[in-house]
Amino acid sequence: MTGSDDVKLWKALGVAGLAGVTAGGVIIARNQRARGHLTPPEIRERLHARVDQAEADGRDPGTSQVGSLDNPGSTESSARA
Question: Is 20 helix (H, G, I), strand (E, B) or coil?
Fold first, then answer.
């Protein structure tokens, strides 16, 4: 590789890294907006529903997997920042 090729490679890697950081920021912002629309009583209600579901499934609520906010009984992990 010549010096010019090295510079092109580093530029391409830099642009790819910047695109990755931007995409990650968009995902985090979207998740934060979704959580921001919940009131404290709604959050409390969802947490209680998750605990009740874990107990109904025979799992220890303190060690069960995190369910999504849209489906409190699910075992899909939600993205967290």
Answer: helix
Question: What is the chain's pLDDT, residue by residue, as a tens digit (81 residues)?
Answer: 678 889 999 999 999 999 999 999 999 988 887 777 778 898 899 999 999 998 888 887 776 555 555 555 555 444 443
How many residues would you count in the chain? 81
AA identity, residue 62: G
Residue 32, CA distances (Å) to 5, 25, 40, 51 in order = 41, 10, 15, 23
Domain membership flag for residue 44: yes
Our count of domains for the chain comes to: 1
Domain membership of residue 2 (yes or no) is no
Amino acid letter, residue 22: T
